[in-house]
Amino acid sequence: MTDIISKVCDENEDFRALIVSDDECAEELQIQEIIAASLGIFHHHMSSSTMQESPESSQVYCEICMETKGTDEMFKLENCSHHSFCSDCTGSHVESKIQQNIFPVTCPGLRCRAIIEPESCKSIVPENVFARWEEGLSESSLLACEKLYCPYRDCSGLLFYDRDQDTIELCPLCRRLFCAACGVPWHTGLDCDKFQKEGKDRDDLKVEELAKKSKWMKCPKCKHLVQKTDGCIHITCWCKFDFCYVCGGTWSEEHWSCQIS
Asked: How many Cβ atoms are within 10 Å of 216's Cβ, its own excluded?
């Protein structure tokens, strides 16, 4: 009888152990499900966040209006990769500079000297602004060039000379060739260095000798000889340059004290 009771008790203990094991297993499975669910939610959240941020990655910050705008609203400055501006702000910047007659127009960035080309802004500025822009660039390029007068004595043609160009020029008035670097009729067969060394023809030497004896003065600007027959020492050359006939300096009130020796 005792053996039977003992056997029953052992079976009960095994049953309890089995029950405890099942409970622990269930609890562990529940924990695993919670963790798996959490990981799933986290993964879904990350995926959603990535999808939401994607459109924002195509947004660019404008340094002028300080707004974030789409890439299609931004202006691409070919000569500068350091700054970003929207097309509206760039157009306003260009228009402001044109109104102030500032040429060329540079990047709106602080101390940035990158030049904005007119063609790149043709679609973002009014037609009249674009036309004035091109006109202003042409004027500024002429101002940067050197003014030259035709060296032939019977001509007074004026043209603009860029030192980067060839020295041989054609006078637009008399249609004769001359050397822009030397300021003389074209020296065929001689380069400028050789001409300046071997140089001046007899007529030029005679004219210079006569000018020296007659006390003629050469205009400091256009280099034409000027002879004063009467009047004061204040000379206004035909090229509109004012100089002192005594010392040859640029005219100022101080030159009244110059005396003819």
From this structure: 15
* pTM exceeds 0.70: no
The closest of 145, 147, 146, 153 to 224, measured between CA atoms, is: 153
Q: From 118, 66, 108, select the one nearest 83 (Cα to Cα).
A: 108
Q: How far apart are CA 223 and CA 153, in angstroms?
A: 12
- Give CA 118 to chain center in angstroms: 11
Q: The tokens 């007529």 sit on which residue? A: 203
Same domain? 11 vs 28: yes
User: Is the per-residue pLDDT at 231 higher than 70?
Assistant: yes
pLDDT digits 0-9 by tens, 33-53: 555 554 444 344 444 433 343
Compute the distance between CA of residue 91 and CA of residue 72 in angstroms, rounded to an integer.
Answer: 15
Residue 210 vs residues 20, 154, 216, 246: alpha-carbon distances, Å: 132, 19, 8, 17
Q: Containing domain of residue 157, as a range?
A: 146-199
What backbone torsions phi and psi does residue 71 show, to the nearest 5 degrees?
Answer: -60, -30
